[in-house]
Amino acid sequence: MSPIYVPGKVTLAKEFTWNETVWNPSMISTALWLDAADTSTITESGGAVSQWDDKSGNNLHATQTSSAARPLTNSETINNINAISFASQFFDLPDFSNFIAGSSNRFLFAVGKAASSDSPILSIGVNSPGTRWTLRVDNYNLRIEISGASYVAPNFTVQDYSIAGVGLSGSTIGDHTFFLNGVSSAASGTATVNTNASSENYISNSVVGAGSGVWGEFILLSSYPSEQTRQKLEGYLAHKWGLTANLPSDHPYKTVGPTP
């Protein structure tokens, strides 16, 4: 907003800025929230990360006990903000069964990019037919994978830094909607989602092996959000990670970040 000049009076000006004290995911209920920009949540030695703390309050910390498999911090940034880099390294995640279990709604956003054409992003559930739920890239396109059952691949490329997400609003593969930088694409298919989330949960790992990429933030919800909440999350992530240019021109938070 331009300053308001009144002859003989003081000059009034209003400048709109965004920061995490205005709106952030702590203002909603999150199942998992990992934030590499908050380096106080990262336990590392020589850049190798042994634990990435969950900011949701649910203590679903991402861990790696094997020194050879530990992802790296302070080696890659997203627009000069610290991120975690993976080169066939991965994190283990704990029991999700109190938050994500069975055929239930869920929603995930991840900020970053894939560094290989076939790479898992986040995977929940054991490896048996129809039970492992994985957001991944295949030929750099975003996919949801239901182990042993179905693949859905919209033309959403995450080879460059992006805000990538998927939401499940029912119990089948066709109840998924993909999101990339504020643009949606519906899935199709009838396979049932029936995730056992009590074990074998990973970041950058799945049945096909560990992936490669640079990831700055993960936000997992145990229910499908309203459009307003989803757009606030997109706005928060875009302004924080310097990705506002990726949002479509009609996005409500294209130029100004979200407020409570």
Chain-wise SSE layout:
Elements: E1 32-35, E2 42-45, E3 48-52, E4 62-63, E5 72-78, E6 81-87, E7 91-93, E8 106-114, E9 118-124, E10 133-138, E11 141-146, E12 150-152, E13 162-168, E14 176-180, E15 183-186, E16 201-203, E17 205-206, E18 209-210, E19 212-221, H1 227-240
Q: Give me the strand/helix succession.
A: EEEEEEEEEEEEEEEEEEEH
Main pleated-sheet profile? 8 strands, antiparallel
Q: Compute the average pLDDT.
A: 88
N-to-C terminal Cα separation, in Å? 20 Å
The top-level CATH class is Mainly Beta
Residues in β-strands, percent: 35-45%
Rg of Cα set: 19 Å
CATH fold group: Jelly Rolls
Instruction: Quickly count the helices.
Output: 1
CATH architecture: Sandwich
Helical content class: under 10%
Count of the separate structural domains: 1
Word description of this protein:
With 260 residues, this protein is mostly beta strands. The chain has a single domain, classed as Jelly Rolls (Sandwich), CATH 2.60.120.200. The chain has one helix and 19 strands. It has one helix spanning 227-240, and strands spanning 32-35, 42-45, 48-52, 62-63, 72-78, 81-87, 91-93, 106-114, 118-124, 133-138, 141-146, 150-152, 162-168, 176-180, 183-186, 201-203, 205-206, 209-210, 212-221. The strands form four sheets. Strands 1, 5, 6, 8, 13, 14, 15 and 19 form an eight-stranded antiparallel beta sheet that branches. Strands 7-16-9-10-11-12 form a six-stranded antiparallel beta sheet, with no helix packed on it. Strands 2-3-4 form a three-stranded antiparallel beta sheet, with no helix packed on it. It is globular and about 45 Å long. The chain starts with 31 loop residues before the first strand and ends in a 20-residue tail after the last helix.
